[in-house]
């Protein structure tokens, strides 16, 4: 359907009137006196002919394992389903539903009939800011990385344990963004990348926990700052800043490679753990580079689509 330009008229003190083309009204079957529903998104006004109805889905778990049930629920959550009716055959599947409801923001068990459970997703996209959620995801992830580096110099078991626990919050925010962002490829990629960074931080924390002591790796102190800069270049859509970040990442990569040669200075039982930590930092730098490149792509995309 072709785009049309329409003039907005003022009506009284607090309202405005916008007329719609007659052909649109006829083609859509709208009649005088019908209600329409409006919402705003950034630089657009969207008109719905009817109030949005909850999306519902039913599925039978049959012989699905714990992990398979969780995956099935996550898939429905990401697809935008609001109400799931899930038929189960075992207590393990019931526990999987409970686990998934804790993992997914807004998920709540509304009804449990024994062999059928109704899971509802209580999320209002209009009251949520993707920008705020993305910044929160970044802050949680960055905080994990800062604490990890701190524990390399000052081993604290309770802080390392909290890092591992916080990875669950990253998963929750990551899934929420994937559900809400829909066709925003840049934001979805950013969220997925941060989720992978958090996975590596968790693995590194477990390695430090097993190592049971501090490590003198002075050059890694710069990595949380570079990661933060890469994320800020994306959130601020700053391509010039992203280019600076990419240069800093390359310098840190060379430091990491040179340090790999010193692995033989450690005891035999420590080498695998230290290598896992160094490999983790290598991956975080690679993901930081990916984020900076996404920032450049986003900045260019927004410029040419203005």
From TrEMBL:
Q: Does the keyword Thylakoid apply?
A: no
Task: Extract the coiled-coil ranges from the record.
Answer: 242-269
Name any one GO molecular function.
DNA binding
Keyword set, alphabetical order = Coiled coil
GO biological process terms held by the UniProt record: intracellular phosphate ion homeostasis; negative regulation of phosphate metabolic process
Q: Which InterPro entries match?
A: PhoU (IPR028366), PhoU-like_sf (IPR038078), PhoU_dom (IPR026022), SpoVT-AbrB_dom (IPR007159), SpoVT-AbrB_sf (IPR037914)
Q: List the SUPFAM superfamilies.
A: AbrB/MazE/MraZ-like, PhoU-like
- All copies of the SpoVT-AbrB domain together span 10-53
Q: Which protein is depicted?
A: Phosphate uptake regulator PhoU
Question: What does the record give as the organism's lineage?
Answer: Archaea, Methanobacteriati, Methanobacteriota, Archaeoglobi, Archaeoglobales
């Amino acid at each position: 359907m072709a785009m049309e330009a329409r003039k907005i008229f003022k009506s009284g003190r607090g309202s405005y009137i916008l007329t719609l083309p007659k052909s649109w009204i006829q083609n859509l079957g709208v009649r005088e006196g019908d209600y329409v529903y409006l919402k705003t998104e950034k630089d657009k006004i969207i008109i719905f002919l009817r109030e949005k109805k909850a999306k519902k889905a039913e599925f039978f778990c049959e012989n699905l394992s714990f992990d398979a049930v969780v995956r099935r629920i996550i898939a429905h959550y990401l697809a935008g389903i609001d109400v799931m009716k899930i038929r189960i055959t075992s207590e393990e599947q019931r526990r999987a539903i409970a686990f998934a409801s804790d993992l997914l923001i807004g998920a709540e068990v509304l009804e449990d009939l024994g062999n059928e459970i109704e899971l509802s997703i209580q999320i209002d996209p209009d009251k949520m800011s993707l920008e705020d959620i993305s910044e929160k995801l970044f802050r949680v992830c960055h905080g994990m990385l800062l604490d990890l580096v701190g524990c390399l110099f000052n081993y604290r078991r309770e802080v390392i344990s909290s890092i591992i626990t916080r990875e669950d919050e990253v998963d929750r925010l990551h899934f929420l963004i994937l559900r809400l962002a829909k066709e925003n490829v840049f934001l979805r990629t950013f969220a997925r990348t941060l989720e992978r960074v958090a996975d590596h931080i968790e693995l590194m924390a477990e390695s430090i926990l097993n190592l049971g002591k501090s490590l003198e790796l002075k050059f890694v102190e710069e990595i949380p700052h570079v990661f933060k800069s890469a994320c800020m270049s994306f959130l601020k859509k700053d391509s010039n800043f992203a280019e600076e970040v990419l240069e800093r990442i390359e310098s840190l990569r060379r430091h990491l490679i040179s340090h790999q040669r010193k692995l033989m200075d450690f005891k035999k039982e420590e080498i695998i753990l230290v290598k896992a930590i160094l490999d983790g930092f290598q991956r975080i730098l690679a993901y930081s580079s990916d984020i900076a490149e996404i920032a450049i792509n986003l900045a260019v995309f927004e410029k040419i689509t203005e």
